[in-house]
Design a protein that fits this description.
Phosphatidylinositol Transfer Protein Sec14p, 5-stranded mixed β-sheet, 45% helix, 10% strand, globular
């Protein structure tokens, strides 16, 4: 259960959010918890990344605001690219995400719509806990003055949120990509995507595994590397000799059946998240959760 110290901090952040004229009217409580954990429970850093997150969103309304998971173009791109959060967490508490092509036709690629679909999926996932929280809450004892002077170690422990993942590991299968696919990438969308992922995402990227690398890997890397921070690039692992090296980095059993694991078929995992997107449709389209006041927007400058 979420402890009293964590709830107190979250209450303060939620009040700050709702009173901040630069931000939308509402924020999902679990999303707020993710921001706080991502910034290692630093309140001021949490505020900074939240403002940056919504600034980038509102600078790119065609991706983050004008969206609908039932839009035909979005449903079509989900038939072209698989973007799947895999069940469970690693022993380190990390979430695994799998990306792969399901349709090899380069003409069906649309990186702008792909970004829109990915961030809808992310927003859907980030409004849910990664580990189920007990439904019953115990009554908390009041904190007296002497208790408030407890050590910082105890306070830190009370701020831990074991129901939120400790980070994210992305697995990208690029075996079916060609240079024709790469030629259709929107560099504007790629720049925004990488900036958002590296600067304003409410979760920390822990590693990225690139599997089924083609012979022209160097050409593919040269296209995207200018958009990747050096510290993030160091997290990327290229697997060029089969899957065994991937199994050394992530629990094999967490992978889909198609990749030698036992997490289930890709199509079945995908259906779970397709159904969740339908349930979360109103939330994803609710401007109160995402849109900033245009009058306030015009008074501030954007980084991206």
């Amino acid at each position: 259960m979420v402890g009293p110290q964590l709830n107190k901090k979250l209450d303060e952040l939620e009040l700050w959010f709702k009173e901040n004229p630069k931000l939308p009217a509402e924020i999902d409580r679990i999303l707020l918890r993710r921001f706080f954990k991502c910034m290692y429970n630093d309140v001021e850093e949490t505020k900074r990344v939240i403002e940056l997150n919504f600034s980038i969103r509102n600078k790119n309304p065609h991706i983050f605001l004008h969206r609908d998971p039932d839009e035909e173009a979005v449903k079509a791109i989900r038939d072209v690219v698989e973007m799947i959060p895999l069940p469970g967490l690693t022993p380190e508490g990390y979430k695994l995400l799998l990306f792969k092509l399901s349709d090899n036709d380069p003409k069906k690629m649309n990186s702008i719509i792909e970004c829109k679909a990915f961030f809808m999926l992310a927003d859907c996932r980030y409004s849910e806990l990664d580990v189920e929280e007990p439904q019953t809450q115990q009554t908390e004892k009041p904190i007296n003055d002497s208790q408030s002077e407890e050590t910082s170690d105890i306070e830190t422990e009370s701020l831990q949120d074991e129901f939120i993942s400790n980070g994210e590991i992305q697995i990208c299968d690029i075996g079916d990509y060609t240079l024709s696919h790469m030629a259709r990438i929107s560099f504007t969308a790629l720049r925004m995507y990488m900036n958002f992922l590296q600067e304003a995402y409410p979760v920390r990227l822990r590693a990225m595994h690139i599997i089924n690398c083609p012979p022209f890997l160097n050409k593919m890397v040269s296209i995207v590397k200018p958009f990747i921070h050096e510290d993030v690039y160091k997290m990327i692992h290229f697997h060029t000799e089969g899957m065994d090296s991937l199994y050394e980095k992530v629990p094999r059993h967490m992978l889909p059946d198609e990749y030698g694991g036992n997490a289930g078929d890709i199509k079945d995992i995908k259906k779970i998240w397709t159904d969740k997107l339908k349930v979360k449709r109103d939330y994803l389209m609710d401007v109160r959760q995402w849109k900033m006041d245009p009058a306030q927007n015009s008074r501030r400058w954007y980084w991206f």
